[in-house]
Amino acid sequence: MSVALPLVDARRALLARLFDHAPMFPPAAMALPDALAEDARAQASPDAWILGRFVVPQGTRVQGRDLAIVDGGAERQGDTVFLEGVSKIRCGGAAIPAVEEVAAFVRRCRAEGVLFKATAGLHHAYPTEAGEHGFLNLLAACTFGDEEDALRAPRGSFELDEESFRWGGREAGAAELARVRASLFHSIGSCSFFEPVGELHELGIL
Q1: Mean of the pLDDT values across residues 102-122?
Q2: Residue boundaries of the structural domains of the chain
């Protein structure tokens, strides 16, 4: 009889398969052969455990890879469909939503039991001077609540290691982080894999 081992690594609970790789989409906008080569490079990296699905437009044929298929405002991942404005939020691109808008979206998804995906504009761990949102901030908003404060928290506010994710005297261990990822915050669509992962290395999280 097999026995399930306890989940002990908070980093993996929070970050595993976090970034759905979308190099075919702007601003990267790679042709399929180049996008597949970039994705193969991500799969071969030591950080491949953070790599989620390969995001493609409807009608694109790719073998041997878990796919996220985008068709207008809908994105299908297996049996799960993410709809923009309902279970998918764009955090950048042509327009950057205000902190209050992102916070309200997270609160609604939590209250209604909606698993959501974020996409666009989340290449950086913390908010930038240009107004871009930070992906660690969004993870903290989903984990700890106090969404506006979490989304505005400046660089250096969060700590994440194998023991826990920490912010402002609060702490979440691996089991709680796994619950958040499974029930609230599914993944982030990003045309770049190495840019956000590189920031995690710069911060000493990886």
Answers
A1: 97
A2: 10-202
